[in-house]
């Protein structure tokens, strides 16, 4: 079978939060990460690491922190209150995923070295942030696309930042590394499909802010 | 013609720094950005903007700042000194791109809202950073892949962080937005091709840091 087309995949990669517990074969997981590391990285230094968690006890550990954090975020953040139906459906799916995080077959922690040394030496915090996050999130996107191409559902989450220290201690992640994304993975219960986005004309500015074409 | 396969594109998208000055048709530029906005974003809020700069004077403005900054980074950062030949070739290409930045047909500034409001309200700076950069860099990666698929060369750069205020003032970019990436684009002089990376086995940790399989 020919591999799926690049635009077909880009247009149909959406957050998949309702996942089956069926295991993902090791070769599939490796192919997904191998797509991730084709992404660019600051100075091509490839200062990233990808932790794949399949052990049931370890997944429960994550689930408990994630679920507690999610409840706090929902209560304290501006997510609360009445929501339009599409957002409410998304929030329900997020809550279900948080509650059942230990049922997914694999959880990926995408890690990156905290400081990009050549820029850190110049004491430009923003430059360092850009080099660090600009190293890991392109790899994360390649991973999400590779998951979609291989029929694996996944979603990019970041609220683990509220319990990152506990994660690092539990999994032995070095102090020099940052956990930038937590990505639950599994074969989806639902279907992949088109994402809804504002029209591209609204986000392109030609030569000057506000100069848009309809 | 069938569209190129997703893995073929992922495996052959490398930084393209030697670019022709031939213009990129507007429809191609729009298709590239339209691929970008299929990426996920914090809360699906799509708080991004993509500035495409084609005006010669404006490109020269960027070129002058970029070239001066590049010379400072090279002199002060840990990029200096003797380098192995592949890194030296890369540095030469980076220098050539910086010197000729006004010759590329289009420069993209990928912008994102600086604070992710639901997390910012919880005063977790790291969480906000992850939500902000985790919003824009997946879109940037989709853009790099779409460029590759359409035969356009591009490279992700971040040293504009040293002159971001000048950029924002010149182009009228609101204070609330951050310029996360500067991406020169053009049809390549060279060929796309495989990227060199460390083996995937070295970056996957199974269930615990340091638990690797060869």
CATH topology of chain A: NADH Oxidase
Q: Encode the helix/strand succession of chain A as letters.
A: HHEHHEHHEHEE
Helix content of chain A: 40-55%
Structural category of chain A is alpha+beta
Keywords:
214 residues, alpha+beta, NADH Oxidase, 42% helix, homodimer
Fold and architecture overview:
2 copies of one chain form a homodimer. Chain A is α+β, with helices and mostly antiparallel strands. Chain A has one domain (16-75, 86-189): NADH Oxidase, CATH 3.40.109.10. Helix content of chain A is 42%, strand content 14%. Chain A contains 7 helices and 5 strands. The first copy, chain A, has helices at residues 6-11, 26-36, 56-76, 85-99, 117-120, 125-149, 164-171, and strands at 48-53, 106-113, 153-154, 177-186, 204-206. A 4-stranded antiparallel beta sheet of chain A has the order 1-2-4-3, covered by helices on one side. In chain A, helix 2 packs antiparallel against helix 6 (125-149). The longest helix of chain A is centred in the middle third of the chain and has 25 residues, at 125-149. Chain A is globular. The first copy, chain A, starts with 5 loop residues before the first helix and ends in an 8-residue tail after the last strand. The mean pLDDT of chain A is 93. At the A-B interface, helix 1, helix 2, strand 1, helix 3 and helix 5 of A face helix 1, helix 2, strand 1, helix 3 and helix 5 of B. Strand 1 (48-53) of chain A pairs parallel with strand 5 (204-206) of chain B, so a sheet runs across the interface.
């Amino acid at each position: 079978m020919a591999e799926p087309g690049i635009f077909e995949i880009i247009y149909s990669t959406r957050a998949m939060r309702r996942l089956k517990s069926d295991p993902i074969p090791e070769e599939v997981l490796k192919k997904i990460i191998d797509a991730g590391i084709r992404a660019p990285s600051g100075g091509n230094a490839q200062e990233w690491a990808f932790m794949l968690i399949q052990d049931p006890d370890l997944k429960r550990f994550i689930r408990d922190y994630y679920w507690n954090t999610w409840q706090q975020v929902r209560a304290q953040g501006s997510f609360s209150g009445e929501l339009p139906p599409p957002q409410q459906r998304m929030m329900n799916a997020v809550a279900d995923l948080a509650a059942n995080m230990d049922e997914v077959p694999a959880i990926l922690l995408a890690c990156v070295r905290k400081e990009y040394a050549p820029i850190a030496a110049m004491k430009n915090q923003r430059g360092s942030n850009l080099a660090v996050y600009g190293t890991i999130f392109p790899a994360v996107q390649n991973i999400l696309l590779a998951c979609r191409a291989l029929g694996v559902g996944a979603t990019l989450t970041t609220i683990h930042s509220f319990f990152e220290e506990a994660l690092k201690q539990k999994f032995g992640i070095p102090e020099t590394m940052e956990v930038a994304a937590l990505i639950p993975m599994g074969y989806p219960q639902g279907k992949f499909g088109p994402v809804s986005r504002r029209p591209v004309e609204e986000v392109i500015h030609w030569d000057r802010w506000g100069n848009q074409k309809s």
